Amino acid sequence: MAYQIMKKKNVWFSISITLVVAAFVAFFGWGLNLGIDFTGGSLLEVKFNQTAPGIDQVEQALKDLDLKGLTLQPTDQSGLVLRFQNTEESKHQAIIAKLRELAPGQTPAVQANPVKVEGAGQAQVQVQTETVAAGGLEELRYESVGPSIGQELKRNAIYSIILIVIGIIIYVAWAFRKVSRPVASWKYGLAGVIALFHDVIIVTGIFAVLGKLYGIEVNTPFVAALLTVFGYSIADTIVVFDRIRENLPKSHEGFEETINTSINQTLRRSINTSLTVMLTLLAVVLFGGASIKYFALALLVGIFFGTYSSIFLASPLLVLFERWKK
After folding, report:
1. Would you state the CATH architecture of domain 41-145?
2. What is the DSSP letter of 54?
3. 21 to each of 161, 168, 249, 280, 320, how far by Cα in Å?
4. Structure pTM?
5. Buried b / exposed e across 287-301, counting CB within 10 Å, b at 16+?
C-alpha cells in the first residue's frame, strides 16, 4: 500500500512553518538559558543524605561568602545545584563547608566561623572543610569556566555550525551532480539544508521553552547534540534522495509521483532505524544522570524531527522547486 504523502505536502509545509515560527518566537522572546560553558562561572551539584534544607536556609548560610550571581535549583528532595560567577577554588571549599553544616543530623566537631575569602589562605579553608567533613553531604560534581573561555566556546560553536552547513551543501551538490532534471543538483543540497535548519530551529525553540519554564541550561553538550542532529538528519534525507535518483531514469511516472514512490520505498527503513535510536535515547533521558540526560533529550527531539523532515519536508521541497522552475 502506497501512502499518498506528496498529495498532502501543503499540510506538512503548514505544520513545519507553524513549528518553526513558534520556535523563533520562543527563542527571540526568551532566549536560551546559557550555562557556565558560555557565560563563565561555576556549577556545584551536591546531594544530602537526608532531605535537603530549604532554599532560604541555604541562601542565609552562604550570605557571608559574597557569591556573585548565586542561583539555587533543587534537583529532587535531597539534591541541590548551585550556580555562581566566582571561580576561585577557595570559594568552592568554603561553600562545601557551609553546606555540610546544614546537612540534617550533622553535628560538626568544630563550629566554623564565617569565611572571609579575601583574607583567608588556602590552609585556613582546608582546615574548616576538614572540621565538618563527617556528615550527610555528597559532592556530585563541580565545574568552573572562566568568562574568556566561555566566549571562545560560544564563538567556536557558531563557527562549527556554519562550516557544517557549508560542507553539507557542497557534499550533496557533488553527490547529486549527475542529476540535473527536472531540478538542478544543488537544489537537492538546498532542500537538505532547509530541512536541517528546520530540525535545529525546532530543537533550539524547545530548549528555549524548557529554559524559561524549568531552568534547563544550554552548554557545550547541547552544541554537540545539534551537530549530531545535523549529521543524522542529512543522512536520513540522503537515503530518500538517493532512491529518488535511482528511480528517476527508469520511472514512467511524473516527478511528484516518482518522489512519492521513492519515499514509500524508504519509509519503513527510516522509521524503524530512527525508532530504535529514539527508544535508546528515551531510556537515557528517563534514567540517565543530570549531566547527560539533556544531551540525550536534544538528540531525541532532533532525531524525531530529522526523520519527519527527511520524509515530509525535504522531498516535497524538490517538487516545490520544480514547480517554481516551470
Report:
1. 2-Layer Sandwich (3.30)
2. P
3. 21, 24, 38, 30, 20
4. 0.75
5. eeeeeebbbbbbbbb
The CATH code that applies to domain 6-36+148-325 is: 1.20.1640.10
Q: What is the pLDDT of residues 120-158, one digit of tens each?
A: 333 333 333 333 334 578 888 888 877 666 678 778 878
For residue range 12-67, list pLDDT tens digits in order: 999 999 999 999 999 999 999 888 777 778 888 898 888 888 888 888 888 888 88
> Are the CB atoms for 150 and 38 separated by under 8 Å?
yes
Q: What is the DSSP string of 34-50?
A: B-HHHH-EEEEEEEESS
Q: Is there a contact between 199 and 229 (Cβ–Cβ < 8 Å)? A: yes
CA angle (144 as vertex; 141, 145 as ends), nearest 5: 145
DSSP conformation letters of 251-282: --S-HHHHHHHHHHHHHHHHHHHHHHHHHHHH
Q: CA nearest 293: which of 76, 71, 145? A: 76
Phi, psi of 133 (to 5 degrees): -70, -30
How many CA atoms lie less than 13 Å away from 111 in the CB half-sphere? 1
Q: What CA dihedral angle connects 195, 198, 203 and 207, to 10 degrees?
A: 160
